[in-house]
Amino acid sequence: MAPLTICRIRPPTTLWRPALRLFSLVVLSIFLTSQTALAKKDHLRVITDSNWEEILEGEWMIEFFAPWCPACQQLQPVWNEFAEWGEDMGVNIAKVDVTEQPGLSGRFIITALPTIYHCKDGVFRRYQGARTKDDFLSFVDEKKWQEIEPVSSWFGPSSFMMNTMSALFKLSMFIRHCHNYLTEQIGIPVWGSYTIFALATLFSGLALGLILVFIADCVFPSRRFSSANYYQKKQALQQARIMKQLEVEHEADGEEDDEEEEDEDYDEREQDDLWSRGVPEGRPVPRTGDFEEEAVRRRVLGTREEEEDT
């Protein structure tokens, strides 16, 4: 009888062990690569409306860009390389996407892209030099930013004026989103969207005006209407004006009467003078009760004329 041969079967775990080791090495390498990439990206800070006040402390170099801008796309690799030196130089390198942060675009008055600002403890200066990595490094290392005039406090990003400008930019972006929603999602025509915004602007202005008038009337009430004797005083003033006007008219009438009396006296004196000289035109107007005197005077005048004729 042939001897019995026993074959030892290898466990399956020992067969998959090299494959597991290889798989673990691949996963570890991918993890380390991703961590390295994340570490590089962390050098470049992203500034938004929620964290922009962080740049008021320390030293910063901030780039304002837009994804659609060709000049910004050319500058981006250089800016990323410059960001890797930021930690060694003690300066924070950041970027702001103006398409996603319209408030910051208005706060810093961004009129051209890309725009670069240097900030040192809340004092802002606009960088206008060459845009290479070496120029950025020398600008920070040699403190060339001290030669640039800082932005006025009136136009600083934390001033009241720039806060208002930021709010206006946010409002304009909100209106743009509403317009796109009305025309693209709901299907309203463009002229219909403009009409809606025009009416909304009109009614909001009227409402705001009424609110401001109400507040002003409550805060600064009119003193003349607050007085209890206001209407009595007003009535007394009106009566005084009427009395004064009547007095003026009465004085004017009196002056006219005086002038008429003077004219009558003057006419009577002229008539008396002519009568004394025997001029017929100077005879006084006869009165109803003096017919006899008038007849006598006519006789006297007739006798005088006869004597003169003879």
UniProtKB/TrEMBL annotation:
Q: Which GO terms describe its molecular function?
A: disulfide oxidoreductase activity; protein disulfide isomerase activity
Region of interest (Disordered), ranges: 249-310
Domain Thioredoxin, by residue range, is 35-145
Q: Which Pfam families match?
A: Thioredoxin
> Cross-referenced InterPro entries, in alphabetical order?
Thioredoxin-like_sf, Thioredoxin_CS, Thioredoxin_domain, TMX_domain-containing
Q: Provide the membrane topology annotation.
A: Single-pass type I membrane protein
Where would you say this protein principally sits, based on its record? endoplasmic reticulum
Entry GO CC:
endoplasmic reticulum membrane; extracellular region; mitochondrial membrane
Give yes or no: UniProt keyword Magnesium: no
Q: Where is this protein localized, as stated in its record?
A: Endoplasmic reticulum membrane; Mitochondrion membrane; Secreted
The annotated subunit structure for this chain is: Interacts with ATP2A2.
Spans traversing the lipid bilayer? 191-216
Which stretches does UniProt call biased (Acidic residues)? 252-273
What is this protein's record name?
A: Thioredoxin-related transmembrane protein 1
Q: Which UniProt keywords apply?
A: Disulfide bond, Electron transport, Endoplasmic reticulum, Isomerase, Lipoprotein, Membrane, Mitochondrion, Palmitate, Phosphoprotein, Redox-active center, Secreted, Signal, Transmembrane, Transmembrane helix, Transport
A GO BP entry = negative regulation of platelet aggregation
